[in-house]
Structures are given as C-alpha cells and as structure tokens.
Amino acid sequence: MPTFNEAANLKPTLTEMFRRNPEVDVLVVDDASPDGTGRLADGMARDDGRIHVLHRGGKQGLGPAYVAGFTWALNAGYDVICEMDMDGSHRPCDLTRMLDAMRADPTIDLVIGSRRVSGGRTEGWSWTRDLISSMGSWYAQRMLGLDVHDMTAGFRAYRAGILRRLNLRDIRANGYVFQIDMTRRVASVGGHILEVPIVFPERLRGVSKMTAGIVVEAMRSVTVWGLRRMLKTVKGRGSDAG
C-alpha cells in the first residue's frame, strides 16, 4: 500500500483489512508523508507483526513506490503480492474475493479488481469522471490489443512468479499509467489475467492524488506503445508477404 498523507485512512483501512483478511501481511510504502503517515505506520507495526513499513526519502511517485514494494515482497519470499490503495476506495471484502479466485485457479498470474466488467462499478463519482476513466481504459485496451476492460485499475494480485519474469528495474512508468504498463508486460510474457468485479467507492477522507498531468502522461505513453505495436504488426505482415 503506497502512502502519501494518508494518516487519517491508515488505521480504519488496516483494521478492516485484517478483519476481512487476517492471513495477509501489509507493507506500507511511505514517501516521507508530512502528515506523519510513516510514523503512525511504524507505531502500528510495533503492535502487529503483520504490518511492515518501507520509508522512502520523498514523494517519488506511484510507479516507483509499487516497484519498491514488489521488490521488498519478492525478497521476503511471498507467493502472492497485491497492490491496493490506502484511501478506502479498495474494499478489503473485494480483496478476499480476488484472493479466492487466485487460490481456485493456479494458472492465473494476475487478478485485477475491475470496475469495468459485469458486476463492477464506481460509487460517488461524477458522470464526467467515470466517463474519462472508462474511455481511458477503452483507449488503452484498443491501442494495446488486450482483452482487459479496466486497464488503469490499481487493485491487483500478482503471483510472485510472474513478477520475477518481468524486469522490474526496467519500468519507468509513473502515475496511473504504471498499471497499464504492468498489464501489457504481464500479457507480453504470456501471463493469464482475470478480472474480478469490484465496487470502487469515492474516498471519504484525505485528498486524491490524481492530476491532469497524470492523465496526459498516460495518454502519451499508451499512444507510443500502441503505435509501436501496430508498426511491428505491419512489419510482420510484410515479412510474411516477402
């Protein structure tokens, strides 16, 4: 769980997490939050061995925070590594269902908690925000040729094996485009991806980190990746014709 100024959400989110999923451990990756999120997490970790804290020197972005967390968890020997927001928008009851789906089918490499499949939805969003989000996923899906409906979803469970097949040190994507990048990377190595419907409520406490710059970065990166994919396809057809 990456955090930046999430002190108000830390205790209620982790309390509900362990009530629903007592068997999980949680790594808080804190980017030197000025509101004391990291210090509060340290105190909770002293009282509960399931809580771990990774401190980073400043606000370095969402993508690097996830890579740091994945690396920590792989080195610690975990078999399933999840990513989840601390702001309450990702419900622990949905994580239970995602983990159940992974346990039921050992061939699944990545479970995505999806707002864009049957049974999934957002709550408390304006229609414009929901439209922008759904169109962004649609654009990424089309440009990258992937059968994934919620490309920007940040609620995920990965098998450690699939993460080890990716070169995490090579990932440069930051912001929410990181989720799209991870999806295409998993697909590129033949990973089996499953979408499980979730409910995504609006946060009750704190401030969203979404900005216009994050959206622009995502659109630019997806366009570049998509054009490269199309060019490669055209070249492949040309070779076949020759």
Description:
Strand 2 (26-30), helix 2 (37-47) and strand 3 form a beta-alpha-beta unit. This protein has a four-stranded mixed sheet, sandwiched between helices. By secondary structure, the chain is an alpha/beta fold. The protein has helices at residues 7-20, 37-47, 62-76, 92-104, 127-144, 160-164, 177-188, 212-241; strands at 2-3, 26-30, 51-55, 80-83, 110-114, 121-123, 156-159, 193-197, 199-201. Helix 1 (7-20) runs parallel beside helix 2 (37-47), helix 5 (127-144) packs parallel to helix 8 and helix 7 packs parallel to helix 8 (212-241).
Strand arrangement in the largest pleated sheet: 4-7-5-8
The appropriate CATH architecture is Alpha-Beta Complex
Mean pLDDT across all residues, rounded?
A: 90
Structural class: alpha/beta
- Proportion in β-strands: 5-15%
Give the helix tally: 8
Shape: globular
Task: Determine the CATH superfamily.
Answer: Spore Coat Polysaccharide Biosynthesis Protein SpsA, Chain A
Class, according to the CATH hierarchy? Alpha Beta
Order of helices and strands: EHEHEHEHEEHEHHEEH
**Low-confidence parts:** none
Question: If you compute it from the alpha carbons, what radius of gyration comes out, rounded to the nearest whole angstrom?
Answer: 18 Å
CATH fold name, please? Answer: Spore Coat Polysaccharide Biosynthesis Protein SpsA, Chain A
Which bin fits the share of residues in helices? 40-55%
Instruction: Return the domain count.
Output: 1
The end-to-end distance, rounded to whole angstroms, is: 51 Å
Q: Biggest sheet, in brief?
A: 4 strands, mixed
Q: Report the strand count.
A: 9
